[in-house]
Every structure is written in structure tokens, then in C-alpha cells.
Amino acid sequence: MNELNMTEEPQGLQLREYLSILRLRKWWIALAIVLVVGSALAFSFRQQPVYISEAQVYVNPVPLANDQGVTEPFLNLETESRLAASPAVAQRARELLGDESLSLAELLANLTVSAEPDTEILIFEYSHRTPRTAATRAQEFARAYLDSRAQGVARNLQAQRELIDRQIEVLDDQLAATADPEQRQQIQAERFLLVQQQSTLVAPNSVAVGYVFQPAEIPNQPASPDHVKTAVLAFLAALPLGAGLALLRERFDDRLRGRADLETHAGAAVLAVVPRVAAWRDESDSPVVTLQEPKSAAAEAYKTLRTSVLFAAAQRGMETLLVTSSNAMEGKSSTTANLGVALAQSGKRVILVSADLRKPRLHRFFRAQNGMGLTNVLAGERNALEVLSWVGVENLRLLPSGPVPGNPAELLGSEAMESLLRELREASDFVLIDAAPVLPVADAMTLTPFVDAILFVADARRTTRGAIAQARQQLDQVNARVIGTVLNNFDPSRSPGSAHQHYGYNAYRVDEPIERSRARVLSWSGRRD
User: Which DSSP symbol is given to 224?
Assistant: First the structure.
């Protein structure tokens, strides 16, 4: 039973993932349906309407004499249907139509003769662009078949009668030429049988070969094109095509597919999943959700991140944490600001360092000034404690970036930066450093030897898997200690396989037990209990 469950569960998860992909890519399916159905209907409406009229003929089995003088009614409808669609019948139909300009091939091209199963009924169907012509030709073909069959039966009967007459004449001659009583008696007996056989033959002109019991009628609606049928068939064909396009689009989509995808390509545990807040539409706005909406799902996510960071700090004495991402606009500054507030709210003394000296944004989250800051301290113009800003949160201080320098990488890799971090470490419990992205510049890699650990941030809607893998490879080249990752701006409705993730007061849950997260943090720190 256990083995069965182990094999069935992955299949169920895979099916749910496929269904989630189809739901996520539903617009591709809709696009395929619109294009296929629209094209099919456009082609259908451009087609010339074709009308079909049918006439039904009852075929009467005709008794014919055989060589033994036994009359038997015989009828083979398949043979009759082939004869009904023969050139001889078409010739007779053309005579009845009174149009000798019509070719026999043209007449037979639109004719269909079929036999009703288990009956003596032939169905004549004729298709044409005009309804009246379709009805006229179906009717005349039915009449032409009956005429041809009547003529054939009459010729057969007449030939049989003439054959019997000749046989009787031969017997009469034999009877006149012989005087033997026994031979005469035998000849008279044979002649009597032939006369009886002749009397059973039907008169050629009185044979009932059949009749048209359902005449052809002028059709009111064209038989083709059938727009409804075309639309239905096109829809059925478009569904698998759309599903295939959706799966193909997903296959070549390099964006993150969720938490597990981030863990796989980053090689580190996801310590927090920050849900997307629909109300934040202005990317230039920089809200600190842990202050403005402390009871929201996003704020709870940062508190979860705080718990993981505190645990890692207790295990390995971590005090300086660098926050970075693979590219810009992935939420590293937002993560730094909100994590700093969450740590400060727990009673920890926190200093935020705006070390992104190319596009600094950390000061905007707290509406702070950026006239003096890190670059002034590294240049020896100011003391670090002199430029620390109070941002309105107890236990939290901010070191802005200051003026943008011309050589940011050199400043961040200098001995002054190393000395500054030692000084800030002594004045606080945690130093959170907002660094530039890994891929565009070398600033984050330059700072790596000066910090205790790195927190990697990825945007669920913007970050690609290739960028994450490349950034992690570069960090590994400098022996960076990545304690975990943060999946930012996550929308469960747009991620395959996330149907069971909920955010809210009652339904919200941490996707991964804290014990499991702690175990992964320990695995990166190289320590075991």
C-alpha cells in the first residue's frame, strides 16, 4: 500500500502542475481557439452554398424465368445502386431534363445513390448550388432509373418469351416429323411444360419495377457549408492546439515558477515568500509594509524572515548580512528595509547601510536625506556615527549612501570599508547592507569578504532562472556564504502548482516548517547539532 501511494502522489502532483500551467496560460489557449475557429468560420462563410435534395424509390423484385422454368423474385440493392449511377441512367436523366448540353460526367459527379439497410429502398441524393436544380435532378434521376429498369426487365421478359417460342417451334417440327407414339407422347409433354412456363411470364409492358414513394423537394437550407458544425470541429481542434502552445510557452519561459524553482536554481533555502500586494502599482513608491501594514501577509512574511535570520545568527554569530539580487528592481532594498524594521521591532539594534552606490534607494523607504553618507565616511570626510540617520523606528539607524562616486567598486573594497563595518558591528546587533545587483556590477562580490552572510532576493515576476543560476555561480567564485533566499512579489494565482498556497489571517501558513528552514541554514553554515 505504501509503494502504491508513493507512485500515485507524484503523478497527482504532476497532473495538478499541468492543470495550473493551463490555467496560468489560459490566454494562449483562448488565442488559439479564436484564431482557429475564426479562420474556419471565415473560410466556411466564403464557400459557395450547396443544397442537397433526395428522392426515395421503392424497388419491386421482379420474377424472372430461369433455364429450369422456375420463376423467382430476385433483388440485389447494391447492384441496383451501381446501375442507378451508371452512364445509361444518366443518359436517360439528361433526356428527361431536356438539356443535351449537360455532360454525363457532370451529371454523375453530384449524384449519390445509396441503399437503405434491410429494405427495398434506394435513396437518390443530388447536390447543386441552387436548390431547385438539386431537387429537379434528384427527381429525374429516380425516374430515369425506374425507366431504365423497366426497359431492362421488359427486354429480359421479351427475350425469355422469344426463347420459349423458338423451343416450342422446334418441338412442333419434331412432332410433325415423327409417327412413333411414344416419341410423340414425350414431345407433347415437353411442349406442354414450355407452354405452361410461357403462361407464367409477366407481360413486358405490365411489369411494376417500383415507384418513387418520396419525391424530391426543394431544400430550404444549404447542406454545406454547415457553420455550426465547422465551428464545433474547429473548437475541438483548437483545444489541444492551445494546450500544446501553452505548455510550449511554459517550457521556453525562463521566469521563475515558484518557490521550489528558486531553491533549485539558487541552491539555497527560501526563507520567506513575500506575496504581491495589488495596491502597490507605483514602482517609484517605496512603502515599508512592516510599518504601514504590520498585520498584512507581506509583513508576516518579513517576520518569518526575521525568525530565520535570528536563528542563523544564534548558530554562527552572524552580525553583518549583505542583501543582493541578480539584477535591479527585484526587491533587495525593500527586503533590507523591512527586515531591518522587523529586527528592530524585536528589540535588536540594527544599522542599515545603503551600499548600492550606483542607484541608491534605501533612504527613500524612510523619507531620509541622502546628502551625507557612506561615501563621505569612506572618503574620510565624516565619522560614521555622525551621518547615521534616525528613521523614526526605535533601535533602527540608517547610513545613507551619500553622493554617487565615480569609483564605487574601489571604495567598497577598500580597507576603510572593512574598518567601517567593524565599527558598525560593535555599535549594533545587526548590520544589514543593501548592495548592488550581482550580475551588472562587481560591488556585491567585492563586499563579500567583509560580511558574515548573504541574503539573495528574487522577484517572482521579473527574475529569470538563468540569471539566478549565473548570479549564484559568481557568488560561489568568491566563496560567498548564502544563508537563504527571499521570493519577492509572489502571486500564487500566476504560479503553476501554487493552488494550495493561501495568504490571509486564518489561511496563511509558512510554506516550509521552520525546523526545515533552520536545517538548511545550518547546512550552509557548515554546522550540525
Answer: B
| Calpha distance 271→339 (Å, rounded) | 12
Residue 135 to residues 58, 213, 516, Cα–Cα distance (Å): 18, 15, 80
d(CA 305, CA 320): 15
For 443-456, b/e burial (b = at least 16 CB within 10 A) is bbbbbbebbbbbbb
Rounded distance between C-alpha atoms, residue 130 and residue 125, angstroms: 14
pLDDT at 201 over 80: no
- Grid cell, residue 369, equals 536625506
Of 322 and 491, the structure prediction assigns the larger pLDDT to 322
Q: How far apart are CA 528 and CA 512, in angstroms?
A: 20
Do you know the residue count of the chain?
529
Q: All 3 cell numbers of residue 73?
A: 423474385
Q: Which of 54-63, 87-96, 117-126, 266-275 has the lowest mean pLDDT?
A: 54-63
Among the listed residues 447, 432, 375, the one whose alpha carbon sits nearest the alpha carbon of residue 398:
432
Amino acid identity of residue 58, one-letter, is Y
DSSP 466-484: HHHHHHHHHHHHTT--EEE
pTM exceeding the 0.85 threshold for the entire prediction: no
Q: At what angle do helices 297-316 and 332-345 cross, to 10 degrees?
A: 70
Q: Omega before 225 cis (within 30°)?
A: yes
Asked whether 212 and 139 are in contact (CB, 8 A), the reply is yes
Edge-to-edge strand ranges of the sheet holding 111-115: 111-115, 121-128, 51-59, 210-214
Per-residue cell: 120: 427495398
Distance CA 85, CA 178 (A): 54
Segment 414-443, tens digit of pLDDT: 999 999 999 999 999 999 999 999 999 999
3-state secondary structure 55-73: EEEEECCEEEECCCCCEEE
Beta-sheet pairing, 51-59 with 111-115: unpaired
Q: Which helix (H) or strand (E) holds 115?
A: strand 111-115
